[in-house]
Amino acid sequence: MASIVFLDSPVGSGFSYARDPKGYDVGDYSSSLQVQRFLNKWFTDQPQYLSNPFYLEGDSYAGLVIPLIAHIISEVTKLTFVINCAMLQELRKDRSLLLISRQGYVVGNPMTDMKFDGNFRIPSAHGFGIISDQIYEAARKHCKGDYVNPANQMCAEVLHTVNSYLAYFWMNNNLTRNALGVKEGTTSEWIRCVKGLPYTFDLPSSIPYHLKLTRRGYRALVYSGDHDMIVPMLGTQAWIRSLNFSVVDDWRAWHLDGQAAGFTIAYANNLTFATIKGGDHTASEYRAEECFAMARRWLDIEPL
């Protein structure tokens, strides 16, 4: 029987809040340290769980920081990898996690590195038939493979067409409004908006932490919904391949109730990648039964 702890992190997400407004001013590294401190206190208060196998899991943006959090916990235990001197001083304060039997981590539809996550959105949108051949060819011509940092005006304009212009027509289509149950007359026009958050995005890539953790023997499961346009499956596959791990179980379908539920491939260093057929962002929201079966098999060290 498994015990699960759900954590709203960083502060401000879910039902979490700070009494002091300054408490919301966190970032990738500082919020990850807060998670480590939370776990330290939780296991101190619940010592009966210290000997259990321990896994971390996070989806979407949490997928970026989960490897960092796992790395911080491994620092508490081994003090092998030094992130920086200030962080090391913080880690040395809390070491009661030493008794945890650390097993690994799971990340779903994970943000990892915009070089991969962002640059595969345009090819994925074209592959799904969302954008036309003409728009795709214009993007390829003017952006030259970099769809994250447009280097010229023509590239910026075609990316605007893909990211905002098409979304505008989708949001203002009556079929969309009816499907979402939007009350008629609520607004005459829906526009795309971006609101700033007091959060410091100071972890540009979690790939180095994936590499360190898996090389040290931690098990890792990375999964993607194959309909995800926010963190495309193609980008996730690309950064996994960049680790240069050898394949131990080649690409194959995995099944649930006699139906193909997705595809999977296993690499050296206990790294498994799996897709969830029909899964969006995030897959566990749209394909709960398939994700549960996948996680249960993986946790039981069974083939998917």
Automatic annotation (TrEMBL):
Q: A GO term (biological process) for this protein? A: proteolysis
Keyword Signal appears in the UniProt entry: yes
Q: Which UniProt keywords apply?
A: Glycoprotein, Signal
* SUPFAM superfamilies hit by this protein: alpha/beta-Hydrolases
Q: Which Gene3D superfamilies match?
A: 3.40.50.12670, alpha/beta hydrolase
Q: What one GO molecular function would you report for this record?
A: serine-type carboxypeptidase activity
- Highest taxon, organism lineage: Eukaryota
User: What is the similarity comment for this entry?
Assistant: Belongs to the peptidase S10 family.
Q: What is this protein called?
A: Uncharacterized protein
